[in-house]
Amino acid sequence: MYGALMAGRPWMSDTEEPWFLEPAPEPQKQAVDMKHMKKKKEKQKHKHTHKGKHPEQRDGKDPASLQQCLGPGCVYPARPGSKYCSDDCGMKLAADRICKILPQRIKQWQNSPCVADEHGKKMLECIHCEQQATHTYLKEMECRLHELEAIILRGKQQTVCKGEENIEGDKNNTDLQISCVSCGKPISMRVAQRHMERCFAKYECRSTFGSLYPTSTEGATQLFCDVYDPESRTYCKRLQVLCPEHSQDAKVTNDEVCGCPLVHNVFELTGDFCRLPKRLCNRHYCWEKLRRAEVDLERVRALHKLDDLFEQEHKVRTAMINRAGLLPLMLHQTIQHDPLTTDLRSRVEREPCLT
């Protein structure tokens, strides 16, 4: 029977085995071979379709469905989600637009006066005047502080005179009592000022006023305490004269005179000084410290005003610089309908108010 089958297939040689006698291929090897062939075909198709494409567009979609790049002289399609095929094309187009549009906008800016710039110049003049006045006021406060030191020195040179009338007048008020503004305890009128100053200093020491940097202020005398605290790593920002935490009042001797300048009608100086012993004078307790603190507080207010003026000047100058910058000139344009009119302001803005 095998001979009859071989006789019916003359194309088969004697050495070849018949197809029905060959072993069947394994299914796993056949699946691997099919996947390998598919991958080779996909790689060949990918190389053939992307052979002449721009290098920036090989990862995109079909070039026929993309728009052409807007870059000057570029013939490649744009990237997905963009108008350009590359960043260089976008930069070239932006440079061409600036070279063509910017000179015209600069001429328009120079031909028509800017009202905002005129207002800005007037504001700068006012700010400069206020800055000069504030600097002059700071110098006056510095001179006033030196005059106060001279008055304190003259008061200390006075001779001590125990005035029995004044002391008796103070003793008559021992029966009157007043509540302390800090602790609320009832205290005698005779020692009220001393008690309130000391009580306030105790409560003031519980709070801290610090900054990370020391302060350098104008003037020969130091304004702030600026004592470094290693625990909080800050510098104390209380007034040096009034800081109860880092400064202590000097001890008063028995022979030290009060030396407070006496006044008439509250503000008029009489030229005389209080010659009572400083330990017994309750009317002028810590008057040197309070007078110095008054002058220092005026200096602090003047420095705060200078900071505000500096910020205003910075804002006005920044607005004036940005107003004539590249981006505003490219984005904004003033349309001049009448070529004969150069000033685009209204008549009310051009004519100054005479009233």
Automatic annotation (TrEMBL):
Domain of life per record: Eukaryota
Entry's localization field: Nucleus
Composition bias, Basic residues: 36-53
First-listed, main subcellular location of the protein, grouped into a coarse class: nucleus
Entry protein name: CXXC-type zinc finger protein 1
Region described as Disordered: 1-64
Start and end residues of each CpG binding protein C-terminal domain: 94-330
Organism in which the protein naturally occurs: Galeopterus variegatus (Malayan flying lemur)
Signal peptide coordinates: none
PANTHER family: CXXC-TYPE ZINC FINGER PROTEIN 1
